[in-house]
Amino acid sequence: MKKLIIVVSLLLIISIPLILLDGCTPVQEHNENIDIHIAVPDGAPALAIAKMLNENSQFEGYNVSYSIITGGSTAINAAVNNNEVDILIAPTNLGAILYNRLKGSKNIQLIANEFNSLLYIVGKDISVDSLEELKGKVVFTIGEGATPDLTFQYILSQNGIQYNVTDDPSEEEVGIQYESDASVLLPKMSSGLVQFAILGEPAVTKTLNSFGFSELFSFNDMWNQVTQTTEGFPQASFFAIGEILQPEHQDLLDWFVDNSIDNVEWVNNNPTLAQETLESNGWATPVPLNTELITRCNMQYISAVEARDSIESYLTVLHRLNPATVGGSIPPDDFYYQG
To answer: What pLDDT, on the 0 to 100 scale, is given for residue 6?
Structure first.
C-alpha cells in the first residue's frame, strides 16, 4: 500500500509542472489570421473588385487587403516577383507568360476570364462601316507587337486585308502607326492629328464624349467573325498565385469566386458608387462611369473550366504571331483552376 501511495505521489509531482506548462503554451501560428492581398491594374479591370473594395470584404481566418496597381505590366510583374499579391487580375496572355516563367518555383493558375475584349476601333469618319473601308487610311494603336496590335493584324489578315507599318498607305492596304501610351495618343486625337485609333475603355468613352469620335468596330465582334466563336476574346483574367493554391485555402478561393460573381451585377447596378469607391482607392479614370461604358467593358465572370477553349484559342493565335507574347509555349492543363 505504501508503495502504491509513493507511485501515485510521484505521478502527481511529475504531472503538475506539465499541466502548468500546457497552460502557458502560446497560440500556434496557424491560428493567426493569414494575410491575403488581391490586386488589380488601374483602368477598367479595377471594376472587377469594386464591390469587395466598397464593403472591405473579409473572410474568417484571413486579413484580406486590396489595391489598384499603376504602371501596367511592369508593375504587375514586380508585384508577383516580390510576393506582394495572391490574387491578381491581369491580361490573359501575361498570365501565360508568368506561368511559363515561374513554373518550378511558384504555382499560378487562371481562376476565371473576367473581361472579354475592351478594345474598339474609333474614328472621325462615321461612314466607315467595314474593315475594307480602312484601306488607304492610318490606324493608330498603343505598343508595337502588343496584343492589341497583334490581334488587329490577325483580324486584318483573316479578312484578306493587307497592312503595313506606314503613315502613307497605298489604297490597297491599311497603315498602322504606334504611340507609346494613351497619354501621347489622346492629345493627338483631340487635336485632329489622328483620325482612327484602337483604344480600350475607359479611353473609348473619353474620345466619344470629348473628341467627336465614333465607335466603328468592336474587337469582340471582329474576333467572333474570324474565329467562328461567340464570346469574343478573353482579354483579362483572374489568377491565383503561390501558397493560396494549397488545399487548405480552398474555402477562401470559393469565397472569392462567389464575391467575383456578385461583383458583376453590383457594378452594373451601382455605377456611381463603384466609381466613388475605386477613386477613393487610387483609380484614375477620365470619364464618369455609366451603363454604356460598363457594357463596353464586357465584364463577365466565366470560370476557367468554361473559358478554357476560348482562352486556348486566343493564346494559340498570339503564339503563332509571336511566341514571346505567351511566354514561349501554350500553358498545359494545370494552368486552369478546377475549383
So the answer is: 40
